[in-house]
């Protein structure tokens, strides 16, 4: 299925893009994150399991067990610091 | 959203806001309001800071704050609420965020205002980038902010 990936803040800067279309056969956020880590380079470094990364599915913060579906918008970003 | 009229509203904007005008508008034509509580967050200087930039996730930001307001309405007897959060480039002393709440009596406003602010700090998708004497860097999330939200019985980890 095709999904849209969104990146913000330090993750956006490290990956050099804020958005990309991605084809995946993974079925949940955890497997998707692992797939992105497997791309290597900045993806492996910045999305590493050693780092705090939060994920949103269709603009709702989600646990990584959340299921993916065709056309989903998945965002990966560092801990939030507003206010 | 199943909220009454526009007495509960969220704005994400680059421009500054007028606190007095916002508070007056929030309680206009609301004779049942007996308390208005507000919090304003500003850019704090020191530690070599020269400026700050705020990034957000358009769409999700508004959606997440509207969800917080609904959660707050479940917990507190609020008559209205207004949240304004600025994004873009800010200087020392600039206003960043306004959270204002109205209620019949002060207790509910005080509590709802703090609840909304605690929630916003750890659940709304904003990121601060500071420019200091030593260069530009993204601000780290603080575990004390997670602890502040936990006081309300909400266990959601942001900082780790």
User: Regarding CATH, which class of chain A?
Assistant: Alpha Beta
Oligomeric category: heterodimer
**CATH architecture classification name of chain A:** Roll
Q: What does the main sheet of chain A amount to?
A: 5 strands, mixed
Number of domains of chain A: 1
Fraction of residues in H or I helices of chain A: 25-40%
Tally of separate helices of chain A: 3
Secondary-structure element string of chain B = EHEEHEEEHEEH
Mean pLDDT level of chain B: 94
- Alpha-carbon distance between the termini of chain B? 31 Å
Structural class by sheet pairing and helices of chain A: alpha+beta
Give the largest chain-chain interface (CB within 8 Å): A-B, 18 and 31 residues
The helix content of chain B, as a percent range, equals: 25-40%
Q: Which range does the strand content of chain A fall in?
A: 25-35%
The strand line-up of the biggest sheet of chain A is 2-1-5-3-4
> Could you tell me the radius of gyration of chain B in angstroms?
16 Å
Describe this structure in words.
- The complex is a heterodimer of chains A (83) and B (160).
- Helix content of chain A is 27%, strand content 28%.
- Chain A has 83 residues and is α+β, with helices and mostly antiparallel strands.
- In chain A, strands 2-1-5-3-4 form a 5-stranded mixed beta sheet.
- In chain A, a hairpin with a 2-residue loop joins strand 3 and strand 4.
- The mean pLDDT of chain A is 97.
- Chain B is α+β, with helices and mostly antiparallel strands.
- Chain B contains 4 helices and 8 strands, in the order E-H-E-E-H-E-E-E-H-E-E-H.
- Chain B has a 4-stranded mixed beta sheet, with helices on both faces. A 4-stranded antiparallel beta sheet of chain B has the order 5-3-7-8, with no helix packed on it.
- In chain B, 34% of the residues are buried.
- The interface between A and B is medium-sized, with 18 and 31 residues.
């Amino acid at each position: 299925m095709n999904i849209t990936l969104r990146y913000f803040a330090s993750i956006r800067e490290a990956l050099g893009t804020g958005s990309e279309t991605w084809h995946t056969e993974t079925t949940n956020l955890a497997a998707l994150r692992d797939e992105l880590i497997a791309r290597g380079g900045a993806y492996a470094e910045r999305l590493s399991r050693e780092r705090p990364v939060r994920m949103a599915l269709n603009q709702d913060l989600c646990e990584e067990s959340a299921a993916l579906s065709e056309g989903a918008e998945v965002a990966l970003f560092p801990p939030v610091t507003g206010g | 959203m199943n909220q009454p009229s526009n007495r509960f509203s969220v704005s994400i904007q680059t421009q500054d806001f007028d606190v007095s005008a916002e508070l007056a508008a929030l309680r206009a034509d609301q004779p049942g309001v007996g308390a208005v509580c507000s919090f304003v967050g500003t850019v704090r200087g020191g530690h070599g800071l020269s400026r700050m930039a705020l990034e957000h996730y358009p769409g999700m930001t508004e959606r997440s704050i509207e969800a917080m307001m609904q959660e707050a309405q479940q917990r507190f007897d609020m008559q209205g609420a207004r949240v304004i959060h600025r994004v873009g480039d800010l200087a020392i002393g600039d206003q960043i965020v306004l959270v204002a709440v109205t209620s019949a009596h002060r207790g509910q406003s005080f509590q709802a205002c703090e609840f909304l602010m605690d929630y916003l700090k750890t659940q709304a998708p904003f990121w601060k980038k500071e420019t200091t004497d030593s260069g530009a860097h993204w601000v780290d999330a603080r575990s004390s902010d997670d602890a502040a939200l936990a006081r309300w019985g909400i266990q959601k980890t942001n900082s780790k």
